[in-house]
Amino acid sequence: MLLAIDCGNTNTVFSIWNGTQAIATWRTSTEWQRTADQYYVWLSSLMAFQKIDVVIDEVIVSSTVPRVVFNLRVLSDRYFNCRPLVVGKAGCALPQESRVDIGTTVGPDRLVNTAGAYDRHGGDLIVVDFGTATTFDVVASDGAYVGGVIAPGVNLSLEALHNAAAALPHVDISKPQSVVGTNTVACMQSGVFWGYIGLVREICARIKAERGVPMKVIATGGLAPLFQQSEALFDAFEEDLTMHGLIVIHRYNKEIA
Ligand SMILES: Nc1ncnc2c1ncn2[C@@H]1O[C@H](COP(=O)(O)OP(=O)(O)O)[C@@H](O)[C@H]1O
Ligand SMILES: CC(C)(COP(=O)(O)O)[C@@H](O)C(=O)NCCC(=O)O
Ligand SMILES: [K+]
User: Fold this and answer.
1) Pick the catalytic residue: 77, 101, 109, 124?
2) Cystine design at 32: which of 67, 113, 192, 241 (Cβ 3.0–4.6 Å)?
3) Residue 145 CA to ligand 2 centre (angstroms)
4) From atom 6 of ligand 1, which residue's Cα is the shortest distance away?
5) Are 129 and 192 within one domain?
6) Which domain CATH number covers 200?
7) pLDDT tens, 89-132?
8) Which ligand is nearest to the CA of 101?
9) Cβ atoms within 10 A of the Cβ of 6, count?
């Protein structure tokens, strides 16, 4: 069975797949120091707890944190007796090309999102991923990744305010009652929430104008629904888009092997 690992700068998601069916998904915080043995203790105890008695013999990894990859390779080798497919590394082919400046290393999560979204929706897409950073990935009509936008993530923006200003507290994002805040927390939430609505709308509008074709906007990441409930920003929200992309890339590599 396949273990798919999506490592972001904040969280790492592990998912076990039987063909196209996800059997279980677990999330842990991303820490580059974590060893293969630590991953295995965590993973095997969750599998035992949920009575998932399967043999993992294939692994695919996407990691925005390069230092984590070494330990995930050791995990695959030592405990699952296989060499992992690592997106963006030699030995892992991608179903679509990436048309960016020579020498640019695109974040593997963005290539994976592109593959997942193109598989489900076809071309001419904007994929918005609300992760540590908020990324906009532009997918051409033929499925190629043709560039995008990187903006500071929602929580990163709130943390930056807290870290830089002595009197600003730590605040969780939520939709404020009104735009004009009457206390510090409400003012901060308003700035980030409504600022973000504007950011997403403006960037998508400008991408569409620049490309000159109708485009669908697909959103992923835990915070996307918060913004969608307020304004119709996206054509679709798909929580599992990155995982789906990993499955698509894994399937493609098996087909061409
Ligand atoms: N459902 C959710 N509700 C609120 N915050 C969330 C949710 N999912 C993720 N987050 C927060 O959003 C930020 C990005 O998380 P995540 O999408 O896991 O990032 P990455 O993929 O970059 O590791 C983190 O600060 C995380 O705590
Ligand atoms: C932009 C990112 C930091 C987003 O990572 P994430 O928020 O998913 O942790 C990541 O895709 C990355 O490190 N990209 C490299 C540069 C690029 O994609 O052009
Ligand atoms: K991500």
Assistant:
1) 109
2) 67
3) 14
4) 222
5) yes
6) 3.30.420.40
7) 999 999 999 999 999 999 999 999 999 999 999 999 999 999 99
8) 2
9) 27
Structure tokens, 84: 């992992």
Considering the domain architecture, whether residues 238 and 136 belong to the same structural domain is answered as: yes
Asked if the model's pLDDT at residue 163 lies above 90, the reply is yes
Please tell me the residue having the least CA distance from ligand 1 atom 25.
155
Reported pTM:
0.96
Q: Which atom of ligand 2 is nearest to the CA of 110?
A: 11
The stretch 164-183 carries a mean pLDDT of 96
Q: What percent of the chain shows pLDDT beyond 90? A: 96
CA of 181 to the centre of ligand 3 (A): 31
Q: Does a structural domain hold residue 6?
A: yes
One domain, residues 124 and 82:
no
Residue 56 lies in a domain: yes
> 48-68 burial string, b = 16+ CB within 10 Å, else e?
eeeeeeeebebbbbbbbeeeb
Q: Which domain holds residue 184?
A: 117-245
Q: Is 109 a catalytic residue?
A: yes
Q: How many domains does the chain have?
A: 2
Residue 254, domain member (yes or no) = no
Q: Is residue 194 a part of any domain in this protein?
A: yes
Ligand 1, residues at Cβ distance < 6 Å = 8-11, 30, 131-132, 153, 155, 221-223
Q: ipTM of the assembly?
A: 0.95
Q: What is the pLDDT of residue 228?
A: 86
Tens of pLDDT, residue by residue over 133-156, are 999 999 999 999 999 999 999 999
| 134 closest CA partner among 211, 68, 62, 198 | 198
How many Å apart are CA 212 and CA 58, to the nearest integer? 41
- What sign for the dihedral angle of Cα 46, 91, 244, 134? positive
